[in-house]
Amino acid sequence: MSIDLTRRTLLHLVGASSLSAAATAAALAEGTASGATGPTIANRTPMRIGMVTLRVRNLDLVADYYRDVIGLTVMQRTATGARLGAGGVPLLDLTLRANAPAEARNAAGLYHTAFLMPTRKDLARWLVHAATNKVPLSGFADHLVSESVYLDDPESNGIEVYADRAPESWKWDSGTVAMATDPLDIDNLLTLANPRVADYARAPDGLRIGHMHLRVGNLEQADRFYGGVIGFDPTRKRTGAAFLSSGRYHHHLGINVWQSAGAGRRDDAATGLAWFSLEVASQEILQAQAQRLRQAGAPAATITNGIETADPWGTKVHLIKV
């Protein structure tokens, strides 16, 4: 398979005729058309994403997808659940809810889970893997701070697979980081991999969840919770969306109302995101979060090594001291 053929194959998988069209598809995956050192910085910040739990109707189908497409290792599997990860680190829990209704696209909940490759070469290798196995994609783009590919699992849970550019190349201005949705230079990316050989048998050990992107019902309310209460710092805002992080990462969390403006409380019986964890680096951070949760009147239940809370739409967040 030549590089050019791989490029055409990828465009076909996105359903696009050109790189510009593919970037437009990626922009739609991000909700708007306006505008690496791997996971090191994303996962050594004072607060970072830990793992995600999804409620699914077909456990085998979804577990096999994350194993075969993303390359996660099945760490534990029962008749009612599966835990998958990379490098011995759990990243994804799947819980069987066979008769659950599908969560509506205009409900609050998961927009996508973003899997961060350790290096750009790993992203290239994965892209060859996706093309070779004809994995349907929904878009790919250059975001200036990162390069990204978008897809959906069999139950329509959004996924981003990406690699960061070197943090020293990110452009900051008064606390705001420059990001865009430009065409991805596939040809340049594929110079890092052999397009004739699919050698991505499993995810690299350093793969982590770099960020989460959530649908919310009200942007200001979500910003008060995830910023003011949880403690993330704002890094960028645009129409209908905000991005927040810890430790000057470009974003650990995206929140948007592109489909979900005015959404009410989530249905806990439906498929989709059950909870995700935020790992915090010190007991002092956790204690400060607990105090702000009490002051805000937000849920704050004690769990092992931390606190379980929920945002205003019922998406549960586990704050874990690591």
From TrEMBL:
Transmembrane segments: none
Record's keyword terms, sorted: Signal
Entry-linked SUPFAM superfamilies: Glyoxalase/Bleomycin resistance protein/Dihydroxybiphenyl dioxygenase
Entry keyword annotation includes Magnesium: no
Residues of the signal peptide: 1-25
Superkingdom of origin: Bacteria
CDD domains: VOC_BsCatE_like_C, VOC_BsCatE_like_N
Keyword Lyase listed: no
Residue span, VOC domain: 48-164, 208-322
Matching PANTHER family: CATECHOL-2,3-DIOXYGENASE (PTHR43279)
Identification of the protein by name: VOC family protein
Organism per entry: Bradyrhizobium archetypum
